[in-house]
Amino acid sequence: MVVGTAVIDLFIVESRSLKEKRGVLRRIISRVRNTFNVSVAEVDSQDHWKRAVIGFAVVGNETPFVQSVTDKICAFIEELRIAEVVHVRTELIRISRGFDGPGEYGEEKFDDF
């Protein structure tokens, strides 16, 4: 399994209050969720009305696929032009199954499903 994560720092030029910021973030988050079917949320700077930090996660079974979707989401957010993208940090994590042998977790095999 491969997990791709990204944290995106945003500057919301037109925001003059936390209420306006929440409206902008709601639009960005809902469009990303609806377009890519990923988990996305505001993860930092909740008390700043011009700055926002959102994060998202993508899960797949192949590194190139997860990297591609992560890149597309970052580009999609920039292309929305609702907020200025200041910085993007991405990370890919490969997680191995870890239960290949019989007897793990009190089961003989997982192939019986």
Describe the structure in your own words.
- The protein has 113 residues and is α+β, with helices and mostly antiparallel strands.
- The chain has one domain: Alpha-Beta Plaits.
- The protein is 33% helix and 33% strand.
- Strands 2-3-1-4 form a four-stranded antiparallel β-sheet, with helices on one face.
- The longest helix has 19 residues, at 18-36.
- It is elongated and about 50 Å long.
SSE run: EHEEHE
The CATH class is identified as Alpha Beta
Enumerate how many helices there are, as a single number: 2
Mean pLDDT: 85
Instruction: Give the C-alpha Rg.
Output: 18 Å
- Strand segment count: 4
CATH architecture: 2-Layer Sandwich
Question: How many domains comprise the coordinates?
Answer: 1
Short description:
This protein is an alpha+beta fold. It contains two helices and four strands, in the order βαββαβ.
